[in-house]
Structures are given as structure tokens and as C-alpha cells.
Specification:
By secondary structure, the chain is α/β, with parallel strands linked by helices. It is 40% helix and 11% strand. The chain starts with a helix and ends in a 6-residue tail after the last helix.
Length: 299
């Protein structure tokens, strides 16, 4: 892909909060070390690596020697799916103590995801049976569970990012409301129109709590067959919500899909061509994302 100096200046310092490098039971195109070198092509500032199945902070520590000279800093976290015991304060405390920068709400174990996946959402499958069970943020009475509230307190005390995962809109709003009450400041809603399908009214409430709305390059790249939305859809989202509330991440690393940086190069050019100012692009891929990862105190 041809690049030009102006485009590279726009992309320099990007922080990808949604990199699916390996290891993972899902097929991956690159590992975390290779993702770091990929990021260097546009002088990325940092990468947050996500697994639906395990604590990636431990991956980063295990690859410490390989990452020591790698050009882009890599961070990890933990997703609260059945593989780590679901809403498990012990798993969250471990991830935080080992340097984790993000706790993701249930993704592959969320009821919303299980329903969408059974309907054929283009989501990948693991190579073998993982015996996943649905994970809920509620207790038997229908209230936010005590374990969920403890998880949110741990996230707040650590000052790290909370993602709503793949919860349904009502549950995710309740999750973020409880998080805000607990003192969580860095919050992100994943791809509101893919799997989770959050309504505009709920998104507006979330933004009022300080939640950033994420959109993913994977869904707007013509080489990714699972979704394939046009750039105009992303432009509409940016203009509707505003770059100050928006983050753009890759959601890439899967086998058969483009490298994350190739997707940044493609979409950076597309957004500029569609009239999105360079400063707004940088707000969404550099400033807001750096704040969420804890690299900056303000977006």
C-alpha cells in the first residue's frame, strides 16, 4: 500500500486498544511481539492486546525478553469470560497486580454474544470445545452482583480501563452506571452496531457517564469479509457522536485478515478523503485511546 508523509503524520502515535494478536484458541495471524513490530510501521505509541479467553498481561510478561527491544509497548488485561471464572474478582486482582491495563466485561460468554453467534455473526470459533457458560453481571435477585461491584472497585482503585464487552445494551448501561458510581473514569463501549447493537438512547446515556464509543477498522476494511461496512457509515457515526467521544481501534490480528497497521493506513486515507479533519482523526486514534490506556491524564 502506498503511503505519503501527510498520512503517516496523522497516524503517528496511534494507540490500538483492540489488537487480537496471539496466543489464542482462535487462529491468529501474528503474536504480540510481531504486533509490536507491525505497529512500528506507523510509529504507534502503544498496543493493548486482547484475548477472549485468558489474561494477556501474563503473555506480555512471558514475552518480556522478546518485547524488551520491540518498538511498540504492549499491554494486556483480562476479559471476564467463563475461562477465567466469569465475574471473578480474584482474576481481576491478579491481572491488575501483574500490570494489566484493562478489564473487559463478558464477551464470548455474554448472553448477547451467545445469541448473536448462534445466528451466524461471522465471529471466529475456537479449535476445540471450551465448555463456555453464560456469564452475567447480575445476582439471583436481578441486582448488580457483589462480585461485579468488587471488580468495579478494583478497576476504579487501579485507575485502569473498563470495557463493556459484549453485554446487551441495558446490561452494559447498568454495568457502566455501577462503574461510574464506584469511581471508574476510563470506560469504553465496544462496536455498538456489531453483536451488542446498542440503541442511540442508551449510547447517549453512556456518553453522559464519560464512556467512549469504539468503532473498529476490521468492520470497514474491504479485505475483511465478515462485516464489510462502507466508510460512509463510520463517517456518519463520527459526525453524530463527535470525535471527542469516539475511539477507533483495529480489532485485527485474526488469521486471514489484514495486519492492523494496513487497516490504519487504509482507513486513515479514507477518512481524510471523506472530509474528516486530521486533528479529529488524531483525537480518535491517538488522544482518546492514550487516555483510556492510562498514558495520559486527559483525552
Amino acid at each position: 500500500m502506498a503511503t505519503n508523509e501527510a498520512l503517516l503524520q496523522v497516524l503517528e502515535g496511534a494507540v490500538d486498544l483492540h489488537c487480537h494478536s496471539g496466543p489464542s484458541p482462535f487462529p491468529r495471524r501474528l503474536d504480540h511481539v510481531e504486533a509490536s513490530y507491525d505497529g512500528a510501521r506507523i510509529k504507534m505509541r502503544a498496543i493493548l492486546v486482547k484475548s477472549h479467553h485468558h489474561n494477556t498481561a501474563m503473555d506480555v510478561l512471558a514475552m518480556k525478553t522478546q518485547l524488551a527491544d520491540a518498538p511498540t509497548p504492549v499491554y494486556g488485561g483480562v476479559a471476564l469470560n467463563s475461562e477465567v471464572g466469569g465475574i471473578n474478582p480474584s482474576a481481576v486482582a491478579l491481572a491488575i497486580n501483574m500490570g494489566g491495563r484493562c478489564v473487559w466485561g463478558p464477551t464470548v460468554s455474554a448472553g448477547q454474544h451467545i445469541c448473536a453467534h448462534s445466528d451466524g455473526d461471522g465471529f471466529p470459533s475456537a479449535g476445540g470445545e471450551l465448555y463456555e457458560k453464560e456469564v452475567s453481571i447480575y445476582d439471583e435477585s436481578g441486582d448488580i452482583s457483589a462480585d461485579t461491584r468488587l471488580v468495579l472497585k478494583l478497576v476504579a482503585d487501579a485507575g485502569i480501563m473498563l470495557s463493556g464487552g459484549h453485554l446487551d445494551g441495558d446490561s452494559m448501561l447498568a454495568f457502566f452506571k455501577a462503574a461510574s458510581e464506584a469511581g471508574v473514569k476510563r470506560m469504553m463501549l465496544h462496536h455498538p452496531d456489531y453483536i451488542v447493537n446498542v440503541s442511540d438512547a442508551i449510547i447517549e446515556e453512556m456518553i453522559g457517564l464519560g464512556v467512549f464509543v469504539e468503532h473498529d477498522l476490521a468492520m470497514y476494511n474491504p479485505e475483511v469479509k465478515a462485516v464489510g461496512w462502507p466508510t460512509e457509515k463510520l463517517v456518519d457515526w463520527i459526525r453524530k457522536i463527535g470525535p471527542e467521544h469516539t475511539v477507533i481501534n483495529s480489532d485485527l490480528g485474526q488469521k486471514g485478515n489484514p495486519l492492523p497497521v494496513d487497516a490504519y493506513l487504509y482507513m486513515g486515507e479514507q477518512l481524510l478523503d471523506h472530509g474528516i479533519p486530521a486533528a479529529d482523526i488524531r483525537q480518535m486514534i491517538c488522544n482518546n485511546t492514550a487516555y483510556l490506556l492510562g498514558l495520559e491524564e486527559k483525552p
